[in-house]
Amino acid sequence: RCYGFATWVSPYWSETYGWDIDRANKWVSSLCFLCIFVGICVGWLLDKAASKRKVIGMAALLLYGFLMFYCFRMTNPAFMLPFIIIYAILEGAIPTVLFTLCPQTVKDPALAGFALGIAMVGLNLGMIAGPPIMGAVVENFGWASGGTVLCVTSVIGMVLLGLMKIYDHGDSAAPVARH
To answer: For residues 111 and 115, what is the distance between their CA atoms, to the nearest angstrom?
Structure first.
């Protein structure tokens, strides 16, 4: 998802808006910078709304899908600031939800590390496969098709999250006895 976007959005903005690549990259950097703070805020929200974590993740993926559908269709830089703010909120929320829910996907809490390891494999495969796949799609079918691919993968992620079984391991905020 995001790796295909983050790799190709600078060239898109540079080509579409006539910006030099440094200017486009500064906008991408601002996305990443905002995600730092959003992740902390979303983490706090997830702690307060523990029973709604899955719903929050599904909503974030759905909205992210819509945003990605339009990301390579934006032709007016006036929409850049709202886009960056909305993108940062959603991009910061999705991995935060993932890493919060991941330990709850296993029945035995002792396997939480294994579940997180599996999630990391998926994220790393996305970093490897996302940019060349997006590049091929954009080269062969145009920029708008790249946004469509990102939209579809986000909706698939939302559906899979909705189907995912979550186990209640009790209050994760409770103190843990160490021996």
So the answer is: 6
